[in-house]
Amino acid sequence: MHELGIVFYIADEVRDVALANGATSVASVTVELGEVSGVVPRLLSDAWRWCADREDLLRDCELVMEEEPAVTLCEDCGARYGTVAHGRTCPACGSPRTHLEQGSGVTIREIAVR
For position 17, what pLDDT does the model report? Predict the structure, then answer.
């Protein structure tokens, strides 16, 4: 379950930002989950609750998850298309020379403090 490792990373980053800005409590953290990141939202949420409730700064902090769509770029014709719907083959020209532009990562978008 790589969700636990992701949660530890998020908690460390949020803690650093909150403390650097003099916050005493964090209300919510918004993360963007790539559509093909492999992260299971329910598992991430459960791991977050377990981790966050163990420290005062993050206790009761809500984890808000937003999905980032996966988009692939065709290197031959320049078309951008939805990765999940079409896979690695460009639907515009049929080329297999494509690469994923977005949608595979986990990004902290917002930290709301109390």
Answer: 96
Exposure string over 1-39, b if 16+ CB within 10 A, otherwise e: eebeebbeebbeebbeebeeeebeebeebebbbbebbeb
pLDDT mean by block of 10 residues, the chain; 114 residues:
91 96 97 97 97 96 98 98 97 98 97 93
The rounded distance, in Å, linking the Cα atoms of 65 and 106 is 10
Per-residue tokens: 65: 């998850």
How far lies 16's CA from each of 13, 24, 27, 50, 96, in Å?
5, 12, 15, 19, 42
Amino acid identity for residue 73 in this structure: L
Query: What dihedral do alpha carbons 58, 6, 40, 69 form, nearest 10°?
Result: 100
How much is the pTM?
A: 0.88
Cα–Cα distances in angstroms (integers) from residue 66 to residues 22, 23, 80, in the given order:
27, 24, 21
Cα–Cα distance measured from residue 37 to residue 113, given in angstroms and rounded to the nearest whole number: 27
d(CA 44, CA 66): 12
pLDDT of residue 1: 56
